[in-house]
Amino acid sequence: MYLLEKKNYIKIGEDKFIRVLYVSKLPKSITPRFYNRITTITNYNIITTLNITPTDPAKVIKMVNKKISGMKTERLEKIKKPIKITTVMKLYLMKKIRRCYK
Asked: For 41-99, how does the pLDDT look when each residue is reduced to its tens digit (9 = 90+)?
């Protein structure tokens, strides 16, 4: 048995190859589908690790509250917009009606 080291892999013996792939800067959340596609590659012996760095709970609560606040603001803006349009249309129609009666 011998060990041959190349740039992209290490060869052990006649038929065993080793390669390490390191993926960094993944999104903050990954879908199970993405993880399953990596871990269920067939015809290869694969060891997969997922290193999770915990986040400070206070930061997470602040982040979630900020998201909720933004969603509420967005919802209110969507509600206000049709009301503004309706009010403008009413004013326009009232002016037209007044002109007709003059």
From this structure: 888 778 888 787 888 999 999 999 999 999 988 888 877 666 666 777 777 777 777 77
CA within 13 Å, CB half, 7? 0
Q: Give the span between the Cα atoms of 19 and 77, in whole angstroms.
A: 53
Residue 83 CA to residue 22 CA, distance in Å, equals: 53
Transcribe 8-55 into DSSP letters: S-EEETTTEEE---------SS--HHHHHHHHT-TTS-----------
